[in-house]
Specification:
There is one protein chain. 66% of the residues lie in helices and 0% in strands. It has two domains: 1-210, Tetratricopeptide repeat domain (Serine Threonine Protein Phosphatase 5, Tetratricopeptide repeat), CATH 1.25.40.10; 292-364, Serine Threonine Protein Phosphatase 5, Tetratricopeptide repeat (Alpha Horseshoe), CATH 1.25.40.10. By secondary structure, it is mainly alpha-helical. α3 (51-63) packs parallel to α5 (84-95), α5 packs antiparallel against α6 (103-115) and α9 runs antiparallel to α10. It has 19 helices and no strands.
Length: 364
Amino acid sequence: MKQLSIVFCLLVGLVFSSGACWGSEVKDGGEAEQLIYDLISEVVAGRECTVEEAERIADYWLSHYDNVKALKWADHAIEMGSVDALVTKGRALISGGTIKKDEAMGKALIDEAVKKGSDVGMAFKGVLLARGDEGKRKVGKGVSMLKRAISMGNKDAAHDLGMLYLMEKLGKNNYAKSLPYFRKGVKLGSLDSMRTLGELYSSDMPAIKKDYAKSYEYFEQAAMLGDSESMKLVAWMNQTGMGVKADPKKAGEWSDKLIALYRKRMTFEDGEAAHQLYSYCLREDIDPSKKLSDEEEIELLKKAGDWGYSSGYSSLASIYENGFGDVEKDLEEALKWYEKAAAMGNELAKGSVYQLKKRIKKGK
């Protein structure tokens, strides 16, 4: 799929909302992100939550790479009678990461949710069946399950069915068939569908005419709902004049909003947010006044790891492995942080530990 390479390389990548991902990335596919940030802040401050709120908090932590917190909140929601939280718990157990992996138990919980009529379970299971992730592909059954979930108002199912067509899992050259499902996803409130349409309108897909103005509209729609990736792109497009009249002031405002959002998420110990803030402030196109000192960068990465996001430790290890800014190269220090990341299940860090031990032994 040569046409897709532009989308993947230039922008932020395409993912399945349900968590049945193409690759390893999981994105939150839902409502106004700002609402969930406010909710978590209130609950951290001591407010009791409803079963629906516990479900949303569990989903948030699952999609932001903290399975320990995801499992905690999924169990809390299940105790209050939630069926959808069985899916969240199942997904966390299947992926493992910072918790003990148990695929058999995870799949059993998802099957239980589907039997009980969970549209969330149908959205996840439908993708697995259509792609053949559990053995023999069952395309018809998977698509039927996704369509049923869509009829129940599940935004992730709409997005995921579009993705199956886009990624040629339901036949070759079916790009055009993906678009109605992405548009349905947008109507149902899927941030992933908004972001994906933004990406497609800025690419060279055969089924869609390149239109940077439309691309900007979709990214802005998602950004207004608090989607951090879209906020990043809207800031960049305003800075460069891509799809919209160049407006450095507006670009700066969006950049400020994004940084404020990362810091808000950090108030409830979101390790991914700390790492995202670190990464964003490294960008060459960012206002120099927003750049971080070496000490601030190291502190952010330590917090990211301490809060359960293993990439924080591995990024910190990389700084010491190669030397960066005023931080001198220190292989022993790098090994320490790679080992901490590896202990949290980070596969890349495990490989780095092996390679770095060999280098240290050779005295390089």
